[in-house]
Amino acid sequence: MTEVVQFYTNPMSRGQIVRWMLEEVGADYETHILDYASGMKAPDYLAINPMGKVPAIVHRGKVVTECAAICAYLADAFPAMGLLPTDDEKADYYRWFFFGAGPVEAAVTNRAAGFEVQPDRERMFGYGNYERTMDALTQALTGRDYICGSRFTAVDVYLGSQVIWGMQFGTMPGNPAFEAYGARLSARPAYLKARNIDNALIAEMQAAQPT
């Protein structure tokens, strides 16, 4: 069975996270660009991801969706690249992977949509409130280079993308811990290669739009 990863994405989406991860693990992959209006809602793609959204990958005949899951899967599928945690790193690795996919994602997107949790409703939401979520993430990144300490792992691709985008779009505070972390990650060769690929695709899409 083929080892080539089939990668379904749109360059103006969270698919940028997965492309970065694919480049970090050195995977052989084929890119399938889908538009929001039709491609993501076409029957053949809905058979892959019934949510009708990207990114998604197909590898060894299996479908993986959701950015955090894809990043974790690719680290497992390509263990020689060293992006899995050691035994001593597993607690931080899993804790903050799920924190990024849960509290961070919910807190940031809710706030961006104009929704604020009322104090008497905080127990209903897994993240409590936006400020507490950002404080917890800031503490996690203060005094360390990466989530697991001094070594880059797959969790840094996922959580790092959130921090980089959060500061870029103003949905996260530009504090020293976030700024140092984002700068460190955005200098990685795999990040730069993936970003250049997606930027070129975005430029092509924009040039093809009728004026």
Summarize the amount of helix as a percent range. Answer: 40-55%
CATH topology tier name of the largest domain: Glutathione S-transferase Yfyf (Class Pi), Chain A, domain 2
What oligomerization state is this entry in? single chain
SSE string:
EHEHEEHHHHHH
The low-confidence runs, each spanning 5 or more residues with pLDDT under 50, are: none
* Shape assignment: globular
Count, helices: 8
CATH classification, class level of the largest domain: Mainly Alpha
* Strand tally: 4
N-end to C-end Cα span:
45 Å
In the CATH hierarchy, what is the architecture of the largest domain at level 2?
A: Up-down Bundle
User: Which structural class best describes the helix and strand composition?
Assistant: alpha+beta
Please, what is the average pLDDT? 96
Identify the strand order in the major beta sheet. 2-1-3-4
Strand content: 5-15%
Please tell me the total number of domains: 2
Report the radius of gyration as a whole number of Å: 18 Å
What's this entry about, in short?
This protein is an alpha+beta fold and 211 residues long.
